[in-house]
Amino acid sequence: METGIFYILAAIILTSALMVVSLRNIFHSALMLILCFFAVAGLYITLDADFLAAVQVLIYVGAVTILMIFAVMVTHQLTGTTMRQVNEQPIPAALIIIVLFILLAIAITQTGFEVIGKFPLMPTVAAIGTALMTVYVLPFEIVSLVLLVALIGAIIIARRD
Amino acid sequence: MVGNYGYAGVWVLVGIGFVLFTFFFARLIRPQRPNPNKLKNYECGEFPFSDSQLQFNVRYYIFALIFVIFDVEVVFLFPWAVVFKSLGLFAFVEMLIFIAILLFGLAYAWKKGALKWV
To answer: Which residues lie across from B43 on neighbouring strands?
Structure first.
């Protein structure tokens, strides 16, 4: 059952990801990216990570892709045009991709992936909250600094025009 | 876990099927009379004066960026709110620091006029 769901979701993710890089209208690529992120959220649900799935929908589906669609809409040359989706340097790109593929294949086949005999934590949100507030206090506060830097950087870059 | 979300999956399928069925069924029963006027943009009865895919004001993008940053902040507020009572004052102070740092960014955006529509 779960394996079947995983294969269906993986097929959706791979197909939509391929369409993101191969469709000629960049707006359609952004819409396909939404489908891809949504299927990834489904993958998190099969891994018993419900909070992560909700965050995936909220941040990636709801915010990041909307930001990309905004970027397409405010850019005059991009809206409604079709473009070549082929790289100018196919041979170096192919070489790098082959090396990367071999490295990843070695890493995946060499890893054991042992199954631990624990049941998944059931309300995951409370466990994440406790961990954030006790063990991972410093990373948690650094997150707000990172967000602050992103905010200031965005304003500076956007206002220079 | 998957079982709990099985209903959601069923409704995703029902939603996709509903749209496909509606389009297919409408195509079956409607009359086919192509007309160039039917391909024009609909502007509430006015004559359309431009293409629908026009360039939008770049200011929308700044608002979207600020929205994304505070959206990420809210994601961190959720788990904190769930365990807030059991962790007490320490967690409260941590979240105050977290929000204070981001409030500084909001004040900066305000001062630089990024929140104003010019």
So the answer is: B46
Query: Domain tally for chain A?
Result: 2
More confident residue, A2 or A119: A2
Query: pLDDT tens for residues B1-31?
Result: 566 778 888 898 999 999 999 999 999 998 8
B positions 28-87 inside 8 Å of A (CB): 51, 53-58, 60-62, 64-69, 71-73, 75-76, 78-84, 86-87
Amino acid at A146: V
B29–chain A nearest CA distance, Å: 29
Calpha distance B63→B48 (Å, rounded): 28
**Whether the complex's predicted ipTM surpasses the cut of 0.90:** no
* A97 within domain boundaries: no
Question: Thinking of the domain B2-111, which architecture would CATH place it in?
Answer: Up-down Bundle (1.20)
Q: What is the pLDDT of residue A80?
A: 55
Q: Calculate how close chain B gets to A135, using CA atoms only, in Å.
A: 12
Gap between the Cα atoms of B17 and B19, Å rounded: 6
